[in-house]
User: Fold this.
Amino acid sequence: MTRTDDSSSADESLLVLPDERRDDLKDPFGPVETDAETLLEAVCGPLITVGDVVTYHVLEADRDPDVAIVDGRTKREAVDEEIREVVATGAGLEVENPPATITKAALEAFREALDAEVPTTVLVDGEEDLLALPAIVAAPEGASVVYGQPEEGMVHVRVDAETREEVRRLLEGFEGDLEALWAILE
Assistant:
């Protein structure tokens, strides 16, 4: 299932996070947990992880995420070799997604991973952080999206209509082609 997009649309940035909107992302969209096993007790549907360290802890707690989105970095630094090996082994899809952007290729890879019959890892060349937002919008009702909150732990977002709408409003503050974003996610 390995796919690397090299078409011009692959690098097409659909959305860019404006500098003045960065503070809008500081508050977590759900409870923060520091123990993966405790967090997983609250997961009862599909599980999507965004981030290498989060994915590593979930895997170490013996749960394969249905979709894992990783980039080989944490806090803008390369992750430890052990973490990289665990989370990137068998990556099914590879895409580019520059910092502070959400690309068409990344969204399409996420949709493909979400629709896959087997757990799928999306390896991002660039930065995966913002991909938690479209994951929350596109994940099925009751799914869990887990992403890292720097210096705090793992944020567990149980996808429901209210959270999905909150994230949609946040994405509307980005610059770019929202119509194309919604077309891919819905």
